[in-house]
Amino acid sequence: MMPDHENASEQTSFEILGHLITPELVPAIMRKAAGIRWGTHLLRWRYFDVTHAGIQVHRGSLIPTATWHLIKRVYVDQDWPVGTTLDRLNADARATLLADDSEIWVYGYYRTDPPRLQWGVWNATTGIAVVYDSEADLIATVFKPIDGSRFFAGQISAVQIYRPR
Amino acid sequence: MNPHDQLAKLLHTYYGYIADLEGSAPEILDMLFVRDAIQSVLEQSTPATEMPGALDSRVYQLDALLWQQRSLFLQVMGEDVLDHARGQQQSLRSHWWWYMDQIQSPIRGAEEVPLPSAYALVSAD
Question: So what's the pLDDT on residue A3?
């Protein structure tokens, strides 16, 4: 079955959600995303108590966004090994964003009104995906989707960006 | 990874979504693929690789917990996004997690069974 997402392989520029995506814009977005900025707000930790790097995180406590993602990946999903630091997770995200062999997707995030543009980058070798909100200049998540790029192909308005080799 | 370990790992990820649907919003579509993968492991199990009852029970309890939170799930996922993704997958109707906006109740008695919190489903690990 052919996916019904658009593939921009023959396009030079296109518009999505009112944003013009040009060949020059894409590497600039990836470089900016590679700065790895997490939201500064706090998220509630709704899982079990965790001790990470000598710090206890209790169920129900509010913790920084980046820490939330780090300990979820390590202790809940178990996709990163115990002992992984935030610097390591950020380095993995940065490498994913900048790797020549990563797939790049752009799509609409329709939970907000109006929908926001999100960039998804997935590397088949590592299985790591990064979701970047370019409007806010924030990393939305770093994780390992079980079915790889099908996660991005399934998003509304998803377009895979052609990367010349 | 053997099927037992594979299922245990998948259940951790599934739990991670169900225990915090709101916090999982940017990744929520992945939860449906994870549930597909759980189903695949279950369907491929043979008498020789039969899953321990505790894992089977955990699938049931997490499913029921998801079902009880279906309104929140639909809100987080967005019915348009679910409809769009489902159209791409051409998922089997028996894979009810792709049809939570359309079906009445996939699990007999899911509404009545008192469930442990999602926390309790993994806290013994």
Answer: 36
In angstroms, rounded to a whole number, what is the distance separating the alpha carbons of residues B14 and B28?
10
B16 contacts in A (CB within 8 Å)? Answer: 47, 72, 76-77
ipTM: 0.89
Cis ω for the linkage preceding A114 (within 30 of 0): yes
Q: Could you give the CA distance from residue B97 to residue B31 in angstroms, rounded to a whole number?
A: 9
pLDDT digits 0-9 by tens, B49-64:
666 777 888 898 999 9
How confident is the model over A129-151, as pLDDT tens digits? 999 999 999 999 999 999 999 99
Residues in chain A: 165
Contacts of A140 in chain B (CB under 8 A): 26
pLDDT at A92 over 80: yes
Q: How far is B70 from chain A (nearest CA, A)?
A: 16
Look at A44 and B23 and tell me if their CB atoms are within 8 Å.
Answer: yes
Look at A58 and B113; give whichever has higher pLDDT: A58
Q: Does A160 touch chain B (CB under 8 A)?
A: no
Distance in angstroms (rounded) separating the CA atoms of residues A40 and A88:
19
Predicted TM-score of the model (pTM): 0.89
In the beta sheet, which residues pair with residue B40? none
Closest-approach residue (CA) in chain A for B75: A111
Contact A59 B26 (CB under 8 A): no
Break chain A into its structural domains and give their ranges. 6-39+88-161, 42-86
